[in-house]
Amino acid sequence: MANARFNKAKLTGINTVTGPIRHHINDEAELFINDPTQLDRLKKTLGLEYRFLAPPGITTLDLCKQAAVNLLINCHFTVNQIDAIIFVTQTPDYWQPGNACLIHGQMSFPKSTAAFDVNQGCSGWIYGLYLAFSMIESGGCGNILLLAGDTVTQTINPKDRAVWPLFGDAGSATLIERSEEDLPSWFCLHTDGIGWENINIPAGGHRKPKSSITSVEKTDEDGNKRSEDNLYVNNIEVFGAMLREEPKAVKELLEFSKKTVEQVDLFVFHQANKFILHNLAIRIKAPILKVPMETISKFGNQSSASIPATLCDAIPDKLRQATKSVACSGFGVGLSWASCLINIGPLLDCSITQYQMEN
C-alpha cells in the first residue's frame, strides 16, 4: 500500500500563474448551437464560467518559470539554495530533455541541483509533494522546488464540446523545505491502469506516431469533433470513478492519520467541476464551507496546477497568516488519484496571477 507518513517537510510558499487569455463560457455559444439551455446548465450545474488559456508559443515551462521566479523572490530564496527541482507535467516543451532540466539551465541553478520530470495529471501535485517530502525525509535535500502545470488546451480540439469548455492552462511553483521540528503529514496514493483509455491522447507517442491518418477529424455520436492527435476524455467514466474512489481515499487518509473530518480545517479537491465538488463534500460528510469550489468557475480545470491554484485563490490570506490542517485530493489521467493531509502555513507566498507576456 502506497501510504506514507513524513515528519520533517513543510511548505514555505506557493505561486500560481495562469494563461494570459481569459475566456468566458459564452464565448463557446456557437459550439452549442447558441443553445442558452446548455450554456446555463454548464454554468449552474458544472460551475463553468471563466478560464485562462495559453496561446501557441506559451508553454507549461513558461508559466511555471514565471511562477518559480515570483515564488523565490517572495520567499527570499535564491537558486543556489535549491537542492532539487521536480517538474510535474503532461505537456513538456520537448520529448527530450525534460522540463526540469530546461528550467534548470534557464534559471542558472547550480550543477549540484537534481532535476527530473514526472508525467502525471490532476493527481500530479500530490505525487510531486510525496516525492519532495520523501527526498527531504531521507536527509539528502533541504529545499525542493516543485513545479506542476499543464497547457492542456493546446491538446484539445476546439470543436470538442465535451472537453474544450472544461480546461484552463496554468503553472505552479511550490517551495518545500526541511522542518527543524516534527511536522507530521500523511499521503495515500492509488492507481487503476485498467482505465487508462478514459483520459488519453491516442496518437503522438511511439505506439502510434502522428500521421496524416491520425490527424483526420471525426465526429462522435454526440457531435464532438476530434482527431487521434487530440485529448479524449470519457467524462461519464471519469466522473463516475472520481465519485466512487475519492471519498474512499479521503476516508482511508483520515483513518491512516487518525483524524476526523472535524479536525481538518479544509478539504481541497482537484477542481474538475462544481457538481463533483459538491457531491464529494456530501460523501465525506464535510461542511460545504470547508470545501472550496469556486476556483473552477474562475479558472477552469487546471490539471496538475488545480490544487495549488485553489489554495492560492480560495484561502491565500488564511494560509499566509496561520497554520491550517488541509486535506488535498486529486484524481485524473492514469487513472490515478492521490490524497494528503498536511499542515500548511504561515506561507511567505500564496498568490495567483496571469502570465505576463514579454515585450
The CATH superfamily name is: Thiolase/Chalcone synthase
Strand order of the largest sheet: 6-5-7-8-2-17
Sketch the topology as an H/E string, one letter per element.
EEEHEHEHEHEEEEEEEHEHHHHEEE
Low-confidence stretches: none
Q: If you average the pLDDT, what whole number results? A: 95
* CATH domain class name: Alpha Beta
Secondary-structure class: alpha/beta
Termini separation (Å)?
50 Å
Describe this structure in words.
By secondary structure, the chain is of the alpha/beta class. The chain has nine helices and 17 strands. It has one domain (1-359): Thiolase/Chalcone synthase (Peroxisomal Thiolase, Chain A, domain 1, 3-Layer(aba) Sandwich). The strands form five sheets. Strands 6-5-7-8-2-17 form a six-stranded mixed sheet, sandwiched between helices. A five-stranded mixed sheet has the order 1-9-16-15-14, with helices on both faces. A two-stranded antiparallel sheet has the order 3-4. The chain is globular, with a radius of gyration of 19 Å. It starts with a strand and ends in a 5-residue tail after the last strand. The mean pLDDT is 95.
Compose a concise summary of this entry:
The chain has 359 residues and is of the alpha/beta class. The chain has a single domain (1-359), classed as Thiolase/Chalcone synthase (Peroxisomal Thiolase, Chain A, domain 1, 3-Layer(aba) Sandwich).
Labels describing this entry:
359 residues, alpha/beta, Peroxisomal Thiolase, Chain A, domain 1, 5-stranded mixed β-sheet
